């Protein structure tokens, strides 16, 4: 791993690639001047785009050339077998070889997870890597995982998600003692399925930990910001995330309809435009772009496929922060110093250690 | 079952009971003049409230007296054993005895489902009753089930939910040929768990049906109104519903903050007030109050526990519509005329019948 801060970008993934990738890198450099970018993709298309930038051009970034790209509709198994030499695979390989600290791609999520798992490998003590994301809440922002990598999860998986999630928000958001909750259909102990009940029992039994276990939370606790980390299986997490995004879009649409309704409301909109813009900014999905793969021996961030340069810059920022604040080292340290031994093996020993 | 339209109300369930129950009944009578109300609960508290109403007082409603009520924190099993003589149990009994066409309660959901199942019994051909609800969409409104009665569901349960759901929106919303989708983490056939994949295969194989099977939908398809009926297990359905409610509240809060931000935005708000009010009305949770228990030999509707008189009146309206449009009879008819035989027994026979 490099001493500096080098991020490899899959320049061919995403609806608006490679343009938004190159422009996104340029925006990210404003916030992270020490950042070194490696672009992976079709050099003939990428180089002219780099020439048009300011900060990125100044560092004459390395371009790893390939014309091969993984399609959005490729199944992960196909991407694994046939994806060698693709922009996504080569970008991940750079992290595996220690030439880059992290990779960001707006390409096929399933392929990215499958290749990242193969190349970077899950950390010792982690059975299944998870996808985590930020979302806006009444209190600021919180993180949720898993968002879709693991459709069914047992109690051990959920406990490992809780542990990775709390280290993540401690390092990246700087929270001192984050509060962790498990997503369920009610807050009472007997609610839900075996996995969530068992995971809650294990987490309740872990004392002397750098986080607080809140217990169960419900769907409306996600936007309320009741906890800093929402732990769930990938099925429910994916549905919750997309339901929140869709509801947000629906209300935006209703709001636009309402303001266009009469002369009076149009005039009101003109005056309140700043306020509405502020709301739009608070809910802007680009602000929360970047889903982090946690539990791998390397940093991998998935950008939304439809995002623009600003959104992609935010995804690069997430990868940069994970490196800056030493997320990987912190997980490794806490997993190996015994405090966070695998909960399925010795939950009681951990609790009384 | 009565020839008219008689609804029994658990007058003691809900945070603001019995006041909001009595006032809600009075509001419902404006929309359903033929409605007959039976109030079940503490007569000494209910009678003075009835005296203060207009329409309800005029019909001098029957009051079935009991001082016993089921608490919100009672487990369903406790409510079943010890709930005899309670307002909820007596109200459901009235439906079981054919003295009322339906029951509405804002009390403990688990208790209501358990007692309704015991007293009213699942219909032949339905393994597990489900809870269904309406929600606002870009296109109007859609229904989703299950919202929490069944934490884990197999393919047969999901197929039965699809069948009950489409009959429900055909009868109550008057849709001619509703579109049904199964909630999943992606729209591709291979996505999700075994239950959703098998259920989709069965539904795809059913031809000549009074509904269209759309396939899988994702979380953001719920508010988008991609389908008329969203089918899901009770775990994901409950989380999706509450996440949408919470997101809606969060944006409302952000919007209020934004409008209070400056003199300009306050002035803008004054002018756009009508428009904002229109938005608030479109998203008003009271409009969508009333979760329907489908698959029982009787009409049972659960109101939100924290609702007010207007919300409770809407829940009564849902029960009244189910009776008016003959929902129970229609399900029974379609289940017994062979068109909708149990899908686990003979999906192909159904398809080719």
UniProtKB/TrEMBL annotation, chains A, B:
Keyword Cytoplasm: yes
Pathway: Lipid metabolism; phospholipid metabolism
One MF term in the entry's GO annotations: phosphate:acyl-[acyl carrier protein] acyltransferase activity
Keywords, sorted A to Z: Acyltransferase, Cytoplasm, Lipid biosynthesis, Lipid metabolism, Phospholipid biosynthesis, Phospholipid metabolism, Transferase
Catalytic activity reported: a fatty acyl-[ACP] + phosphate = an acyl phosphate + holo-[ACP]
The protein's Enzyme Commission number: 2.3.1.274
GO biological-process terms attached to the record: fatty acid biosynthetic process; phospholipid biosynthetic process
Database matches in InterPro entries: FA_synthesis, Phospholipid_synth_PlsX-like
Coarse class of the protein's main subcellular location: cytoplasm
Top-level EC class as recorded in UniProt: transferase
UniProt cross-references to Gene3D superfamilies, sorted A to Z: Isopropylmalate Dehydrogenase
Keyword Membrane in annotation: no
UniProt-listed SUPFAM superfamilies: Isocitrate/Isopropylmalate dehydrogenase-like
Localization per Swiss-Prot or TrEMBL: Cytoplasm
GO cellular component: cytoplasm
Cross-referenced NCBIfam families: plsX
Role: Catalyzes the reversible formation of acyl-phosphate (acyl-PO(4)) from acyl-[acyl-carrier-protein] (acyl-ACP). This enzyme utilizes acyl-ACP as fatty acyl donor, but not acyl-CoA.
PANTHER family to which the protein is assigned, alphabetical: FATTY ACID/PHOSPHOLIPID SYNTHESIS PROTEIN PLSX, PHOSPHATE ACYLTRANSFERASE
Oligomeric form and interacting partners: Homodimer. Probably interacts with PlsY.
UniProt family annotation: Belongs to the PlsX family.
Protein name as catalogued: Phosphate acyltransferase
Organism whose genome encodes this protein: Thalassobaculum litoreum DSM 18839
């Amino acid at each position: 791993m490099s001493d500096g801060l080098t991020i490899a970008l899959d320049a061919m993934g995403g609806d608006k690639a490679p343009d938004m990738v190159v422009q996104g890198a340029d925006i990210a450099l404003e916030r992270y001047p020490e950042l070194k970018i490696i672009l992976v993709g079709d050099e003939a298309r990428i180089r002219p785009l780099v020439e048009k930038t300011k900060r990125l051009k100044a560092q004459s970034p390395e371009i790893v050339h390939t014309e091969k790209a993984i399609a959005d509709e490729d199944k992960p198994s196909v991407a694994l077998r046939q994806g060698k030499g693709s922009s996504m695979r080569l970008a991940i390989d750079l992290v595996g070889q220690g030439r880059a600290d992290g990779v960001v791609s707006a390409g096929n999520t399933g392929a990215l997870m499958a290749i990242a798992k193969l190349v970077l490998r899950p950390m010792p003590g982690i059975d299944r890597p998870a996808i985590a994301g930020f979302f806006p809440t009444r209190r600021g922002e919180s993180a949720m995982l898993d968002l879709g990598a693991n459709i069914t999860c047992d109690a051990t998986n959920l406990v490992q998600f809780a542990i990775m999630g709390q280290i993540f928000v401690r390092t990246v958001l700087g929270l001192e003692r984050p509060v962790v909750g498990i997503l369920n259909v009610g807050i009472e102990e007997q609610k839900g399925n075996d996995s969530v009940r068992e995971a809650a029992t294990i987490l309740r039994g872990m004392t002397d930990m750098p986080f607080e276990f809140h217990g169960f939370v419900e769907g409306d606790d996600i936007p309320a910001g009741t906890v800093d980390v929402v732990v769930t299986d990938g099925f429910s997490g994916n549905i919750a995330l997309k339901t929140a995004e869709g509801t947000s879009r629906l209300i935006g649409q209703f709001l636009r309809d309402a303001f266009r309704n009469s002369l009076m409301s149009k005039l009101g909109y003109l005056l309140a435009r700043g306020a509405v813009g502020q709301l739009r900014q608070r809910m802007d999905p680009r602000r929360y772009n970047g889903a982090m793969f946690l539990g791998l021996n390397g940093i991998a961030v998935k950008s939304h496929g439809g995002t623009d340069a600003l959104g992609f810059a935010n995804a690069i920022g997430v990868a940069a922060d994970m490196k800056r604040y030493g997320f990987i080292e912190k997980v490794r340290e806490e997993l190996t110093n015994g405090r966070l031994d695998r909960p399925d093996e010795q939950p009681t020993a951990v609790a009384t250690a």
